[in-house]
Design a protein that fits this description.
This protein has about 100 residues and is α+β, with helices and mostly antiparallel strands. The chain is flat, with a radius of gyration of 23 Å.
Length: about 100
């Protein structure tokens, strides 16, 4: 019986002592992508969550290395959410953020 109570107590202790290990915190006044000059919506129907960042691009090579068919290279842009999630890009703090012209 004592062993059962000991196991039950240790399980309860670990359950209630879970602490968030996240080291990233959201800035107090975040730099929003919608206010950045690199923000690009595909169309007015596209939700902001699927908008692209023109600051970070990559060349899409299609299937050349798979099937050998060479197509023209296409320049693509990363999603804004992708750029904000990676520290080497814009990161949570918005390191590459540039305010849109307000003219």
């Amino acid at each position: 019986m004592k062993g059962f109570l000991l196991i039950l107590f240790s399980l309860l202790e670990t359950t209630f002592s879970i602490v968030s290990t996240s080291t990233t915190t959201i800035p107090k006044d975040p730099k929003l992508c919608v206010n950045c000059k690199f923000f690009m919506k595909e169309s007015f129907l596209t939700p902001d969550a699927y908008s692209k960042c023109t600051k970070f691009s990559f060349i899409e090579h299609d299937d050349f290395f798979v099937n050998g068919i060479k197509r023209p290279e296409t320049k693509r842009y990363y999603y804004c959410s992708t750029a904000r999630n990676f520290h080497h890009m814009c990161g949570i703090e918005g390191k590459k953020f540039e305010e849109k012209n307000k003219n």
